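ok new one. same drill as before - structure tokens go in, u give me an amino acid for every spot. 369 of them this time. try not to just spam alanines like last time pls lmao
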């Protein structure tokens, strides 16, 4: 028992004192914001384990396990080296659909290599406070210089295929180049192999991992539980943050068209000028600086059921997208007073959010009693 106790102490480290609970008003209910954990260095991705504990990435390159009581583990070993610069670092985390049996964890991150850096995805088995048998299953090619636009959400589809969002690394034109992974939604098997029904399999001069293209910097993605389709959000330039439902082989227009303009004020052609390209399902101008994304499928807040939530980095909170089928009918903005990197529904029907800060936190949003 003494050995077990020492192991427990070694696994978890002291965490800063938590802020007090507070409540805010929304259209559906008053929400209580319950701090779960504090003192995380720019947390980026979160995954809930079957026992209620949480895996959280820190952009600097650490993966943490947070107990149901809010205790934060020492950094989990086995995580591969990341390029922690600018928007790069250790980014998303998700669990294999059969995690209970396989214990497999998937991580996205910015990886160095010839030419610069790119988005990669690795997987490993979670055993105690370590990832073992870690292997890289996807590498964005080519690797290029620069600190921006890594995308990096990792989402399993109902059929078991793995979607990976990427950015165009702030290089613009490669988003239209099918011989590049930059600015593409990627679809692979869990072991990294290419599904034979991907749209560009066998096409000369095209990467077979590509599902859709013409994207800028997709930092939110989630599966709509009602349709089984993947939805993504995409950062616009000066204006034009987007919501899309990426379809097989379709071109979403960047940088040929956008609802925004270049940062220097130079105009970009607007989507109606190019009916051959897929227009956004919904867009924000001015931007909210979209981040994580989730669908709400719980009866805990029945007014939210079937709607989507998106985090905001410029808008300091989360945005509820009120859906009518596959149409965004309206939105509700819920001000949380800080940059939100990820929002995800928990198994108990609460919403988990990550605050994007050097002293970042995990919060749980629940209806106030």
């Amino acid at each position: 028992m003494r050995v077990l106790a020492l192991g427990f102490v070694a696994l978890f480290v002291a965490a800063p004192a938590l802020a007090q609970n507070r409540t805010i008003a929304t259209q559906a209910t008053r929400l209580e914001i319950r701090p779960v954990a504090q003192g995380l260095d720019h947390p980026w991705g979160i995954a809930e384990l079957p026992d209620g504990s949480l895996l959280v990435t820190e952009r600097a390159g650490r993966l943490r396990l947070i107990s149901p009581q809010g205790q934060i583990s020492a950094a989990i070993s086995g995580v591969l080296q990341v390029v922690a610069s600018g928007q790069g670092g250790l980014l998303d985390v998700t669990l294999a659909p059969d995690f209970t049996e396989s214990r497999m964890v998937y991580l996205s991150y910015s990886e160095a290599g010839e030419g610069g850096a790119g988005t990669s995805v690795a997987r490993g088995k979670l055993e105690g406070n370590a990832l073992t048998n870690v292997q890289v299953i996807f590498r964005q090619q080519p690797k290029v210089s620069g600190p921006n636009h890594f995308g990096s959400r990792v989402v399993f589809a109902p059929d078991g295929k793995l979607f990976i969002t990427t950015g165009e690394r702030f290089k613009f034109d490669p988003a239209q180049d099918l011989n590049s992974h930059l600015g593409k939604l990627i679809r692979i098997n869990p072991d990294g192999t290419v599904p034979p029904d991907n749209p560009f399999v066998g096409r000369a001069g095209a990467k077979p991992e590509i599902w859709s293209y013409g994207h800028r910097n997709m930092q939110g993605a989630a599966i709509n539980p009602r349709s089984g389709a993947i939805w993504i959000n995409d950062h616009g330039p000066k204006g034009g943050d987007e919501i899309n439902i990426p379809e097989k082989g379709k071109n979403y227009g960047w940088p040929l068209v956008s609802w925004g303009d270049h940062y220097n004020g130079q105009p970009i052609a607007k989507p109606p000028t190019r009916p051959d390209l897929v227009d956004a399902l919904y867009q924000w101008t001015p931007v909210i600086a979209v981040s994580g994304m989730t669908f709400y499928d719980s009866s805990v807040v029945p007014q939210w059921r079937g709607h989507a939530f998106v985090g905001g980095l410029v808008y300091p909170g989360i945005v509820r997208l009120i859906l009518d089928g596959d149409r965004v009918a309206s939105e509700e903005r819920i001000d949380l007073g800080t940059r939100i990197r990820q929002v995800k529904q928990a198994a108990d029907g609460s919403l988990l959010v990550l605050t994007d800060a050097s002293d970042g936190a995990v919060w749980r949003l629940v209806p106030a009693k």
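Residues 2-11 form the longest helix (10 residues). and btw Residues 36-362 form a domain with the Neuraminidase fold (CATH 2.120.10.30).
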